[in-house]
Write a structure and sequence with these properties.
four-stranded mixed sheet, 71 residues, alpha+beta
């Protein structure tokens, strides 16, 4: 899993925008925005059903917004 962190206290919308832009540049099949159980559950289901898909996940962890790439 590749991870990119936003700046401390960054605007969530700017990090979400960066996730979508990175997803488009990387030809991601799915960009998930938001942390917690919903994104974790959905990414696990998608990875099981479509293991070849590239997922970009934008979530909040350790007081920072992060982008994660799941291959």
């Amino acid at each position: 899993v590749e991870t990119v962190r936003g700046e401390e206290a960054a605007d969530p919308a700017s990090v979400a925008y960066a996730a979508v832009e990175k997803g488009k540049a990387e030809n991601a099949d799915v960009v998930l925005i938001g942390g917690g159980i919903m994104s974790a559950t959905l990414s696990a289901m998608i990875s099981t059903l479509e293991p070849q898909w590239l997922l970009v996940i934008n979530e909040y962890e350790d007081h920072q917004w992060m982008l994660k790439w799941v291959h």
